[in-house]
Automatic annotation (TrEMBL):
Keywords on record: Aminotransferase, Transferase
Any GO molecular function: transaminase activity
Keyword Transferase annotated: yes
Residue ranges of every copy of the Aminotransferase class I/classII large domain listed in the record: 31-377
Protein name: Aminotransferase class I/II-fold pyridoxal phosphate-dependent enzyme
Keyword Transferase among record annotations: yes
Required cofactor(s): pyridoxal 5'-phosphate
Length: 387
């Protein structure tokens, strides 16, 4: 076709590829244990489901919402005040269709073609894909094990720091599962102020810190509001992944411009979803500790189980994932993941899909119950892939 050469070429994301492989295994009659996509299998709270159902029974709620309900914005502001001791105004809060959508679009009102964005390596793919959509250039700063997978600001070259328009940061981190402390965010804010760089922080996993206090907000650090914004999602905290609702919060000017952009491409989060979010934020919060406990039990079963069969996988400090170095004898993460699928039916995500520094690792999601995880460990042991 004549227009084919005029189109940009994009590849399917890794999860679409893994889904194709899953369908292939099922067609062969294999049992599949899918530990690739991080979609919670824990249930939302009953009062949240009830709020969604009630709102869905009102005909007017099927119209365009056009804006966030005032009571939703008030719920976010109150939650951030209670949870993080962060004060927000309505002008500093807006909803998006999940953090992935927000991260895909946030560079558009910030970056011009040719601007430089600093992204971690490895990182969740949309962290680099979003700036690419804005035609920005990307500088990858490595997350190294010897630095506890934290960004080393001193290692960013001076010319890169001075040229950078935006930096993407995310802790607790997907995929490497690292957790950052207050001192790290103080360094981030000081660095961003020094070089006049906009910070975009993804805080989707703040409620999933495994062995210490739940995570913090970047916005709690003095000066953070001057330099950036933060995304926080209800997907993992309240098991509402499919409802697709997250919030961008922080610097008033960034939020204003982002809201203007999205007003051209979006007519607002549906009223029933907004009502469910209000119920989640204002209602009982014991679901947060239940989720932490459930993921901790699964992490212990997976990481401890794999270590017991000779695969030296460290315990994850945060998120709902495990970042596992390849077993002895393997060097390529995609080749290992394919062999693991073919021999055991266990699906994981190759580390190389998160960037060059992810090579040598695979990511496993804690999205199966403990008995299923124990069965996965047994299948891996019986496969002989770990010696």
């Amino acid at each position: 076709m004549k227009f084919a050469n005029k189109m940009k070429v994009f590849d399917l994301n890794i999860f679409s590829k893994l889904e194709e492989k899953r369908a292939e295994l099922l067609q062969k009659g294999m049992e599949v244990i899918n530990l690739s996509v991080g979609t919670p299998d824990f249930r939302p709270d009953g009062h949240v489901i009830a709020a969604l159902k009630e709102a869905a029974g009102i005909a007017d709620n099927f119209k365009y919402s056009l804006a966030d309900l005032p009571e939703l914005v008030e719920a976010v502001i109150a939650w951030y005040g209670r949870r993080y001791d962060v004060s927000l105004t309505p002008q500093q809060v807006m909803s998006v269709y999940g953090t992935q959508e927000g991260m895909a679009h946030v560079a558009l009102p910030i970056c011009n073609p040719g601007d430089l964005v600093i992204a971690p390596d490895p990182c969740y793919p949309v962290f680099m894909f979003g700036p690419r959509m804005a035609e920005a250039e990307i500088y990858y700063t490595p997350l190294k094990k010897e630095n506890n997978f934290l960004i080393d600001f001193g290692s960013i070259p001076e010319d890169v720091a001075r040229r950078a328009k935006m930096i993407v940061v995310s802790y607790p981190n997907n995929p490497v599962t690292a957790v950052a402390d207050y001192a790290f965010y103080e360094k981030l804010v000081a660095w961003a102020k020094k070089y006049d760089v906009i910070v975009v922080h993804d805080n989707a996993y703040s409620e999933l810190v495994m062995d210490s206090e739940p995570g913090m907000s970047f916005l709690a650090v003095p000066g953070a509001m001057d330099v950036g914004i933060e995304f926080n999602s209800l997907s993992k905290s309240y098991n509402l992944t499919g409802l697709r609702i997250s919030f961008a919060m922080g610097n008033t000017e960034i939020i204003r411009n982002f809201r203007c952009l999205r007003s051209q491409i979006d007519y607002g989060i549906s009223f029933p979803v907004q009502k469910a979010a209000i119920a989640a934020l204002n209602g009982p919060q014991d679901i947060l500790e239940r989720n932490r406990k459930g993921y901790r039990e699964r992490r212990d079963a997976l990481c401890g189980g794999l270590r017991s069969i000779g695969w030296n996988v460290p315990d994850s400090p945060g998120t709902m994932f495990v970042w596992a170095p390849l077993p002895e004898g393997y060097e390529k993460s995609w080749e290992f993941a394919l062999e693991l699928m073919d021999k055991t039916g266990v699906i994981c995500t190759p580390g190389e899909s998160f960037g060059p520094a992810g090579e040598g690792f695979v990511r496993l999601a804690l999205v199966a119950d403990v008995p299923t995880i124990e069965r996965a460990v047994r299948l891996i042991r019986e496969s002989g892939m770990v010696r």
